[in-house]
Amino acid sequence: MTPVIFGAWAVGGWMWGGNDEADSIAAIQASIDHGVTTIDTAAVYGQGYGEEVVGKAIRGRRDKVQVATKCGLRWDDAGGSQPWETTDRLGNKVTISRNSKPESIAEECERSLKRLGIDVIDLYQIHQPDSATPVEETMAALVKLQDQGKIRAIGVSNYDASWIRRAAAVAPVASLQPAFSVIQRKIEKEILPACRELGIGVIAYSPLERGLLAGTVPPDRQFPPGDHRASHRFFTPENRRRVLDSLDKIRPIAEKHGVSLAQLAINWTIQEPGITAAIVGARNAEQAEHNARAMTFRLSPEERAEFRHAFDATSAAMM
Fold it and tell me: For the chain, which terminus, N or C, has the lower number of CB atoms within 10 Å?
């Protein structure tokens, strides 16, 4: 697994204002061509469509890539917990619920394998904790899939330290996928120490905070219909200004290394102690190549400290 992972949420065309399938396929393939070895997707991304796009993109390249996907968020079954209403990628109303029951996981795995066009999933992750299902039952179901040769490794996403410990007591948990960036650092208190103690890898998502840390989101930018950032609390005009002010402080570091602000933020994240890799999305081949190049340089300890300090006040205000 390389330090940068291709994130395929936007590829599903859901909650990101749609997608162009040809561009999405080109982005995934360019990412692989530039050394990224893992693609992270989920069944719920585009309600199955995202996995289908990934499947098309990796056809003929399966030996070059690890496929990570997620289960546990159902839009096609009423048996879950904590339901929430939204719209699918086509604008139709849909209810999504958390379902980590063993029978649901087994069903989802078969569907994901078919959509992806593969025989085995390299990393199969529970997308969100399901409070209605004991985590021990969920992990036992994943171990069964592992024994059957349908998945290679077990992962979880968005679990807190308590859930991680319960899961690890039942199954060999390879990884946790939490939100983490220079703005959003709350996992440093309990979750990172727990993962270090248990030998669990940490795959950070949103290292660019949905594009904010790329420095390309001015306070007056309008997002297209269906783009969740329009209502996200990080994207108020005031918070966007805070982020831009912090980015100005570390711009000299980016210039010194000849990289973009986005590449700098990705690089800082993947060098953080306890972080195994970072998931970064791309809409086209150019963005994918750009993200992959974030692996090609190294910051000094002083530069890393300066980067973190530049966002201390911003992080405190936004969290």
Answer: C
